[in-house]
Fold this sequence. Notes:
Blueprint: H1 23-33, H2 37-45, E1 49-52, H3 55-60, E2 70-72, E3 77-82, E4 95-98, H4 100-105, E5 114-117, E6 125-128, H5 135-144, H6 165-171, H7 174-179, H8 194-205, H9 210-221, H10 228-244, H11 250-265, E7 269-272, E8 275-278, H12 284-310, H13 324-340, H14 346-363, H15 367-383, H16 389-403, H17 408-411
Parallel strand pairs: 3-5
Antiparallel strand pairs: 1-4, 2-3, 5-6, 7-8
Helix pairs in contact: 1-2, 2-5, 6-14, 9-13, 11-12, 12-15, 13-14, 13-15, 15-16
Amino acid sequence: MSFGPPPASFGPTNQPVWTPPTEIEQALFEAKSREDWSAYFTTLAENRLYFEVRRDRTDAEPGNTFPVFGQDLRTGGAVWAVYTEGMLPAPDRVFDWDELGWFARVWTPTYPPMIVVNPGSPYEAFLPSAPPHSGAWAQHSERAGFPSFRTTLRTLRVGGPLHGPVAHGLACGALLFVNNGLPWNAMAYHGQGYPHERKALREWWGVTSRGQWQEQQRALLALDGANPVWEFALSLRRTIARDFRGHVDTGYWRDAAAHVLRDRAAGETVITADGVTRTEPRPTAETEARIKGVQHLIGRITRYEARFRADGILDENRNVSSVDAWDLGRASAMARWGLGSRYCDLPEAEAAVVEAGRSASRSYRSWQDFAAGYILGRCLHFDDEEFGEWYTDVREAQRILMSDPGSPWLNIPFR
């Protein structure tokens, strides 16, 4: 079986040594080298296939798809270029994605007669896009099922930083990207495709413009996004531990929180831009409600930490020092999400990633400490002590990052 122009199809070549960007392209390269079409199509069917779309029309009609077609001199006409994840061009164009069988289903006579996979690469292939020929490769999608985002470590071997400040900042967002099965070091980020990246920012963050993205990015880097009550409770425990040089009893922690909050409620002297002033006393009922809330939070934190120790996230007798990591990990991701949504450019995203990494180094001592802070923040925000997917998914991502030999956490110094 062969598809497309013979020079671009399978067969012996004298091509120079080529480093496949990810394991996907490695599998395609190996299948092509041994002329195994079935393995080649199965690899395509199990992964997302990206294609360029018109940005202006996608913005105007987000629910529709507007592919961009090109020309190829070898076919003598129009082609529809599709890319696997590691072969995506720099983010000067925008892309959507779908599974292999979709390209056969949506084909119309106005579409190009050929699909070219990863044009210009050693594992390039031309697929006839019209029926009945398309049935030969589309059937692989039925057996593979729809590509899913699996929790796994993915690394760009080429095209993404592996060391240095940018790589360190990207590694701060690795829990999110390992959880979603996306390359942790994809700085030139396309993610889940331009339409989905915009939709996700809109639905999860309320971001629909460059200005809103900038505001959200600044807040995360300034550590203004997390709940200040969480940091109050954790900083109080840090102070007690520093003063007493050891373990902090939970009951003492709760009592200390009540004492501090009652003192503050009586009125305190603060320094503002207008000078020194004293705050007004707060009603007793309001203060007691705050105390009850903080003491409940302390109980939640200690129960999560006990689970973290049991699951190997925390070492024995270790506590979470801060949840700054919850903001900083998302700040690293937000930079890439902004780029994928075209609310920023590559240098701007890169600068934000580097800043997230530097802040993390100031707040934590190790990747393990950073991970524990991130997971606690995520659980306090989403999980409500159910220990459901909000916890188990990121726990698995943490396990991979702390154990896989290719993990950035084992190859990039935290400080």
